[in-house]
Automatic annotation (TrEMBL):
Occurrences of domain Metallo-beta-lactamase (ranges): 568-658
Tagged with keyword tRNA processing: yes
UniProt protein name: ribonuclease Z
Catalysed reactions, semicolon-separated: Endonucleolytic cleavage of RNA, removing extra 3' nucleotides from tRNA precursor, generating 3' termini of tRNAs. A 3'-hydroxy group is left at the tRNA terminus and a 5'-phosphoryl group is left at the trailer molecule
Residue span, tRNase Z endonuclease domain: 7-68
Top class in the EC scheme: hydrolase
Region (Disordered), start-end ranges: 193-221, 858-883, 957-1028
Assigned GO CC terms: mitochondrion
Keyword Nuclease listed: yes
Enzyme Commission number(s) of this protein: 3.1.26.11
Species this protein is from: Gomphillus americanus
GO biological process: mitochondrial tRNA 3'-end processing
Keywords, ordered alphabetically: Endonuclease, Hydrolase, Metal-binding, Nuclease, tRNA processing, Zinc
Amino acid sequence: MKNSVFVVSTPTAETTGTSLLLTFDDKKYLFGNVHEGLQRVCIQNGHKLGRLGNIFLTGKTEWRTTGGLLGFIITAADIMQSVTESTKTFIAQAQARLKRRRSVSTSQADIEKLERKSTELKRKLGKVEAPSMVIHGGDNIMQLIATARRFILRRGMPLDIREHAHSVSTVSPTWEDHNIRVWAMPLMPQNHDMDVNGKSSRKRSFDDYSKNDDFPISKPDTDRLQLLQGTMTDMFDSDWRIDTLIETQLSEVRMPAVIFVRNPETKALEKYTGPAPNTGKDLPDIKVLVRQPWPGALVKELPATKPSPVSVSYIVKNQPRRGKFDRELAIKLGVKAGPAFSELTRGATIKTADGQMVTPEQVTGPTIEGEGFAVIELPTAEYISSLTNSAAFQSETVLKGVEAIFWLLGPGMTSNPAFQKLIKEKPNWKHIISSADHCANYLSMDSAAVAQLRHRILDEARFDLPVFDNATIKLPQELSNCTIAHRGMSLHLTPEVTFSPEMEPGPLNTIESMKRMSQAVKQLSVIAHQDLKQPAFIKAYQDQHLLEDDTEVITLGTGSASPSKYRNVSATLLRIPNVGSYLLDCGEGTLGQLARIYPADELQEILKDLRLIWISHLHADHHLGLTSLIKAWHTAVYRDSQDRKSSEHKSPGQLTGSIEDLEKRQGLCVVAESTMLQWLKEYSEIENFGYDRIVPLCVKPVIFDESNNIIMPTRFEWGDMTLGFQTVDPRINTILRKLTGLANLQSVYVLHCSGARAVSMTWSSGLKISYSGDCRPSKRFTIIGRDSTVLIHEATFDDILAGDAEAKRHSTTREAIAVGLEMRAKRIILTHFSQRYSKIPTLKNVIARPTNFEDLTNTNANDITSLREPPPKPTTTLDEDNFDDRTLGSLDSVFGDTKFQAPSIMQPRSLSVSHDISAAAQEVKIGVAFDHMRVKIKDIIALEKFKPAFAKLYAETEDHDDSPEAKPTEDAKKPEIVAEITRDNAEKHRQRFLRRDARREEKEEEEEEEEERRKSTEGEIEQAAMQM
């Protein structure tokens, strides 16, 4: 069985760590760091994860090494479940085909052959394992994953966490399966107060603790492990279903919740419409039915922990193999060539024709020791002594067969004399070094880089060349026998050990990638630039009269759900001149996207200039880049500070809630819902990433009456205080405006998931920018965003998929534009496109028809969880969705007298508004966002001029490979065909292209309609068959 180790990633701007993939025919294993961007790299380089069952995390448990773990688990879980189901379906279909063939077969030989195949299929079906994953690592891995309990839910995929927290005194493998044996080496810094040679704790799971009498644990530790293990089960192997109802007393229902009662006569379920809990009204003494809360969300808080210094490394070896089969000897012993040979090689004893028993040992050579490698991560030189004293690293038996070591090194390690001495003592090993000090900052996302380069050719004013460097930094002379790691490097362990140092694929050839764009596309770009010089456009450009028109919008990530080769997940940066920078959502990889746009010095200035981060909701694609970005901000701002590691400010949990405390706060504001802020706080116990320096503001959106009049502006909770921009206390208003740089910030609930919000921010100059996050079209959003300078709105689906948009609570292109028109926004930027439009979103079918604005209204206390997916957390004293008279009374002192009926809960409400999109678009300029696009507000008007060039670019490349090996297009080979195109001819060419595109869209619509008719017919046939 062949197996190899591939270097998947090394430290670059987008990939902060090193990952290795060990592959067998039947399984894959991941070693190293699961950093931000890893799943995107796997997609880019074609590494399939369907058979990945084990992840071996190296290094310390911190975001640099595990920042991509949460997103990676979500993606891997979905892929593994899909592969398992597909395999079962394939085998079942094969069995059905065999059964049909057997029923018509008349030959006894054929029947026996089919029965053998059927038996083999049954054997294969029995070997199909249910999806599961084992994650090995150091302290706090389980704690890290448990912090995500409110936004990760996967059923039917058990997750087993093995924490290796103490060194092992024996040389037995800490884990093994039929392919490999693994020795975990938990390393500690020198002179640390933990006992490096403590008793064995090879698996820090609760089951292993409970079975290990040699390592007793205290009752609090037992309780902690039980809670964390239970949380893991709730997140990944729960039998929870959203449609499951449980019976309980009405008074015991935790709001918000959808409440049902059973009609005593018809026995049918009906929605309960009476007084609800937590409204202050008398409740009837009845039993009701409610949806079972999502179990993970019921865990209010996790047990306390603290950062761990443990850095885990591994020695990995193949299982020993039987010696070579001696064919000639087997024949001499009377074994007949054929199936008997196969049985002997599989380890079975066979009986010869003369009755002699032949064992595998008689016909095979000596057992072959398994080949192997080591993955060793040393954050600092203080870990070297722990490595050299490790029992596994000292054992000749364990190290026998180890051919190479992958060294994952912290800053300055290669120049350390102790490390150089260690390398010198191991001259027979192949040493591969991966370190940010030496590895090239190559473009690790080739497809996205090619897109950025080509965008630069078309529109150099809006797209910069990516920041990268393909050169490696030479190692010291003392390490001349070492090799610098790079992606694609491979170590083949069987059938013989070979090392391939070449980079496959090689670094992206940026010049060749730019050359491959056709002259026809370039000519359309020339036309666009010429249009910008026309008097009519110049006049329109000068007559815009936009406030703060030099404000820059940088769309860092414009995809939805999960990253793709071409689009990263959500993030948009605003740069307001002389005020600061503001980040709208922060999906995984956001910091890497920034690092590809801005050189290091400029990036540091942007981080220092960052005033506020807005997180729209708790879905992973909108916030998993937040921790690394805050850490980078903290490093940039406090790089030279004496007290960088220990804040002089009180942590949020210690705040007294006084105005004096608020005045002392100077830091980055993170505005989000309470569960998002709690996630940050919980993770801060695992790693000190700068949480004590930020200002977490829990946002409470605007309250409306039934006529959509604002009766309570947006509030913010900080410590024990309720803040706002429009309170009766001018001191609070002034402090908040100084802290954020804003004159106002208003937010509304939108229809998407629990706690989803849209926001509108206003600056003192009058500049107003509104951001939708993910949502259905919202009338109330148009109210708070009225007369926005710029609307940034999600346009996940094309209009032809309006049904998908409604079902998944997103917006279509037309709906997003309609929101902008109703809002009277002067400019609109469309973003957050479905990954089905991985290169360029379609703008077809944007037609004039009524738009349904769907909002959460304050009418029925029983309908809120029908909007929530997953179900909400239990309510707290001041729940964001559930107001009562006492709550409102407490707010009076902050915002003044309020005269309104307390809204109890929210439900969807639709309001149809009709706009002539095509006519209105003449007034409102609309831009389509791409990753890495930088556009000033005053330049949005120019984006439409480049639409034909971008459309032509992706029409030509949609069926071609974007990899560095892709061949030039025919137009690029024959530039003379298009070199002499005049302006008039080019315009005709553009019109022909648009007509061709329209015909293609009509054909697609006809095909989709035919598919719908086919499905409808099949449904009718199936229904008729059921009635027969």
